[in-house]
Design a protein that fits this description.
globular, 12 helices, alpha/beta, 424 residues, 20 strands, 8-stranded mixed beta sheet, TIM Barrel
Length: 424
């Protein structure tokens, strides 16, 4: 039997609203004891004094680009996840071929078991080919391992199809995750419609493209009395709609991504790499509203929307959308939420780990006796400058090069096995 004893850490247990110094005994990949001053006995001891010990991040919005694997892949993507403190990743279905049938789901699950460093759960497509017409076989895909459904990258324009999606997903206990962008409104836009798009002479994406879709999908969810989760919400107005719907009893949840509460479209005027993303970077007013929503609980989840690309996103007209960020996920959130004074470490971990696991029905995101030891250790005082060239991810399309961040993971464990250790 293999035993590991993590000693002297500031342990964060979101399920108990607890933060305090504890030891954690791990045996055969399972947490066996959490208490003070556990005897060393025959265990391998890891002293983590002055560090936080947290449940691994459950990132419910990751693009691993597999099947295909040209722009990422299970291997590089999951190593990057481990480096960023992510122990469970839910991979989106906008792949080639699309994850819209049980055979492709099985391929992803088996590939993750063979090549992955962390746990990977596929999100199945809502509709065949993500075309918004015919529902994918939810029952058979669930049998192979999907934990939710999404046509991410596309929004289902037909309200009757969307109603069927919500009803069917609810029937099978799957979380429907909506990419709220009405492309009849966004058309060929490349950045947020506003002052910056006018200055640069670039086609803008009107905020209405998101708010219109958010409002319609919530109305359908209210009508059929089922859950709906809004992906990568980016606007103050969208958040206001979600907040009102929650207060009215609608079963709606939402996520935001770090780039939307850290960056604004003004940065595009001076920085040219890694800023083309969908939804686009918005105004300062929106950025501040998202932080407010994270703090007051209107925002349920923080998810990376890690979207690696071969290009750097510097050609705003022609490069594809996406920001590569998974391997700095924890330090981004710690620096700009906790270090900035907006959230406690406990509340941050709820948004990153506990809440997404509960939404998806995953046995993850918390530290408790009997749980699998998916654990991350980070030093809140360790500071480092981001060097995008050193990214493990194939995607170097990141705007964070040169950013000074705190809270880098120094150790990541999955099922009690060390999958990442930082050399500091």
């Amino acid at each position: 039997m293999s035993k590991v004893l993590i000693k002297n850490g500031r342990v964060v247990i979101p399920g108990e609203n607890f933060v305090g110094e504890r030891d954690i005994l791990i045996e055969d990949g399972v947490i066996r004891q959490i208490s003070e001053d556990i005897p060393k006995e025959d265990a391998e001891v890891i002293d983590v004094s002055n560090c936080y010990v947290i449940p691994g991040i459950v990132d419910m919005h990751v693009h691993l680009r597999d099947p295909d694997g040209v722009e990422e892949g299970i291997s590089t993507g999951t190593i990057a996840c481990a480096k960023g403190g992510v122990t469970t990743a839910c991979c989106m279905p906008n792949t080639n071929p699309c994850i819209d049938n049980p055979a492709i789901v099985r391929y992803v699950v088996l590939s993750a078991e063979k090549y992955g460093k962390i746990k990977v759960h596929p999100i199945g497509a809502m509709t065949i080919g993500r075309e918004g017409k015919i529902l994918a076989p939810y029952d058979r895909m669930k049998s192979e391992g999907i934990v939710g459904v999404s046509d991410d990258g596309n929004w289902i324009e037909d309200p009757l199809v969307m109603r069927s999606v919500l009803e069917t997903a609810g029937m099978y206990g799957l979380l429907p995750i909506s990419h709220c962008e009405d492309k009849r409104v966004s058309l060929n836009g490349v950045i947020n419609e506003g002052v910056v798009s006018l200055k640069l002479g670039l086609p803008g994406i009107p905020p209405l493209a998101e708010t219109l879709a958010v409002a319609r999908d919530i109305l359908i969810a209210r009508e059929v009395e089922t859950r709906i989760h809004i992906a990568h919400l980016s606007l103050k107005d969208s958040l206001d709609i979600v907040r009102y719907a929650k207060s009215s009893g609608v079963k709606v949840t939402c996520e935001v991504s770090p780039h939307h509460f850290i960056l604004t479209d003004e940065l595009i005027l001076t920085k040219k790499v890694g800023l083309k993303v969908n939804p686009p970077l918005r105004r300062e007013e929106d950025r501040l509203a998202l932080i407010e929503g994270i703090v007051d609980g209107s925002v349920d989840v923080i998810a990376s929307d890690h979207a690696p690309r071969k290009t750097l996103g510097s050609d705003l007209l022609n490069d594809p959308f996406g920001i590569s960020s998974i391997e700095i996920m924890l330090p981004l959130c710690y620096t700009f939420l906790v270090k900035a004074g907006h959230l406690s470490t406990l509340e941050m971990i709820k948004k990153l780990s506990y809440n997404p696991a509960r939404l998806l029905g995953l046995d993850a995101g918390d530290l408790a006796v009997g749980n699998k030891a998916d654990i991350v250790v980070f030093n809140p005082d360790y500071r480092e400058e981001v060097d995008v060239k050193s990214f493990i991810s194939k995607g170097k399309n990141s705007p964070y090069d040169g950013f000074e961040l705190y809270g880098f993971p120094i150790l990541t464990m999955v099922d009690g096995k060390i999958v990442y250790a930082k050399d500091i």
